[in-house]
Structure to design on (451 residues):
């Protein structure tokens, strides 16, 4: 891991956001090993620890310098192999070791507990600091370390044991396997800290953290005839406060809210959040770009954000028929959807996240760009590039916007000059401060807002 300390940058157009540090190798996109590509990023509840998972099945943990202080810098804490590649002999399928999601549990003691999952298997890990001890003094060894002869030992002296060093160890506590026929896309820990859900393309299972050999199926959208399949589950999350409520999104652009108190199998949802599409905008790509790649509750449970290919939508839990806000991410790509379909970029799964106070939203884009939005739209949107020194937006072109009384010139990104290999899919926001982590290929960038 390469650590680059904080560098100065201008913050005039970045609303006070500045580069803090970066972890990773400085290489071109073509030189990067596939196993080193970061596949998930997650802060813990305190914000003093940060976890990343990669396509090689490894988990890397970072610890904040001067924990509890206002310093935004982190340092390497530990690294361990969470998942290995496997092979399903019954279905003749190779199971990748790639880490799809990491979720921290609330810290019950001095150790850290986190859930990690690949496509099929979920694991509960305990990460803790262990003191290594060694015998440093006895009367059965010579000064050079060799054993004394039995005749030369005339008395027995109790050995002296001393702590030599402290090491960080990772130990798998439980393995939750063989419950999903399809690829796991989400895990979410309940507010009761006793259960969690795991979601794949067609089913959602409810687990007890204490039982690794049993789970309960609470959502099943698999049709009797697979030819009648019209949608798949793309993401799922528990309500942050109500332990009986969870939501899941679908490839049709809908979000369904379910209450586990209503019935054991929650196929009958309590609410459906869906926006009617304008028929004039319908095209061959409409269904693909309306597929929701990520959903999140605000920390008080009042709002929901959903990310599709071109927009982030903000929903009020009390209003199902339309979002209260819609933010365009890269609307300039609409003219390039055919090319994006050909190179499979249209299927990229961008994540979204709330700030600690739920007033701001962050999500990624191409060309190593990411966006920060005011949830209520009261302040201007911020677009930053994951780099040490902020530059202007890539290859802009000017368009004329004519209003009723005056003319304004707006700058738009030219989609012909965007590097689609550089993309920010995974982001995480510190739970209490304006400190963010974004992953681009094998690099982890940290940004902090100046106070």
């Amino acid at each position: 891991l390469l650590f680059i300390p904080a560098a100065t940058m201008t913050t005039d157009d970045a609303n006070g956001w500045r580069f803090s540090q970066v972890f990773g190798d400085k290489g071109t996109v073509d030189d990067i090993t596939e196993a080193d590509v970061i596949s998930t990023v997650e802060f813990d509840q305190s914000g003093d620890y940060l976890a990343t998972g990669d396509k090689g099945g490894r988990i890397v943990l970072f610890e904040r310098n001067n924990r509890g202080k206002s310093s935004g810098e982190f340092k390497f804490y530990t690294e361990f192999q969470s998942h290995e590649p496997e092979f399903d002999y019954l279905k003749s399928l190779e199971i990748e070791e790639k880490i799809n999601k990491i979720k921290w549990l609330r810290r019950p003691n001095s150790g850290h507990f986190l859930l990690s999952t690949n496509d099929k298997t979920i694991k509960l890990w305990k990460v803790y600091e262990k003191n290594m001890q060694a015998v440093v003094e006895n009367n059965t060894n010579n000064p050079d370390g060799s054993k004394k002869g039995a005749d030369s030992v005339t008395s027995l002296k109790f050995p002296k044991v001393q702590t030599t060093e402290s090491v960080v160890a990772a130990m798998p506590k439980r393995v939750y396997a063989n419950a999903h026929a399809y690829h796991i896309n989400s895990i979410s820990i309940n507010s009761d800290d006793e259960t969690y859900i795991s979601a794949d393309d067609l089913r959602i299972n409810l687990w007890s953290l204490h039982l690794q050999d049993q789970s309960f199926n609470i959502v099943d959208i698999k049709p009797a005839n697979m030819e009648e399949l019209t949608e798949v589950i793309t993401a799922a999350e528990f309500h942050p406060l109500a332990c009986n409520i969870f939501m899941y999104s679908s490839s049709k652009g809908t979000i369904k809210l379910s209450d586990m108190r209503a019935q054991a199998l929650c196929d009958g949802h309590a609410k459906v959040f869906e926006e009617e599409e304008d028929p004039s905008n319908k095209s061959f790509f409409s269904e693909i770009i309306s597929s929701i790649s990520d959903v999140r509750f605000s920390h008080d449970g009042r709002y929901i954000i959903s990310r599709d290919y071109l927009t982030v939508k903000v929903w009020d839990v009390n209003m199902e028929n339309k979002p209260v806000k819609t933010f365009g991410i890269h609307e300039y790509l609409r003219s390039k959807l055919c090319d994006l379909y050909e190179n499979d970029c249209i299927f990229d799964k961008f994540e979204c996240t709330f700030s600690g106070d739920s007033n701001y939203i962050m999500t990624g884009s191409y060309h190593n760009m990411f966006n920060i939005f005011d949830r209520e739209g009261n302040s201007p949107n911020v677009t930053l590039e994951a780099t040490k020194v902020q530059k202007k937006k890539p290859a802009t072109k000017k368009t004329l916007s004519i209003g009723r009384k005056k003319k304004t010139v707006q700058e738009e990104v030219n989609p012909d000059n965007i590097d689609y290999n550089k993309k920010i899919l995974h982001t995480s926001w510190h739970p209490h401060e304006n400190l963010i982590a974004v992953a681009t290929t094998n690099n982890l960038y940290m940004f902090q807002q100046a106070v």
Summary: Residues 65 and 74 are 5 Å apart (CA to CA). Helices lie at 286-290, 337-342.
